[in-house]
Amino acid sequence: MEGLSVVGVLVVLVIVTVIKGVRIVPQGYKHIVQRLGKYHSTLTPGLNFVIPYVDSIVERLTTKDIVLDIPSQEVITKDNAVIVANAIAYINIISPEKAVYGVENFVLAIEKLIQTSLRAIIGEMSLDDALSSRDHIKQKLKDGISDDIADWGITLKTVEIQDINPSTTMQASMEEQSAAERQRRAAVTRAEGAKQAAILEADGRLEASRRDAQAKILLADASGKAIESITAALKDKELPATYLLGEKYIEAMRELSESDNSKTVVLPADLLHAVKGILGK
Question: Where are the alpha helices (DSSP H) in 124-238?
Answer without folding.
Answer: 127-131, 134-150, 168-234
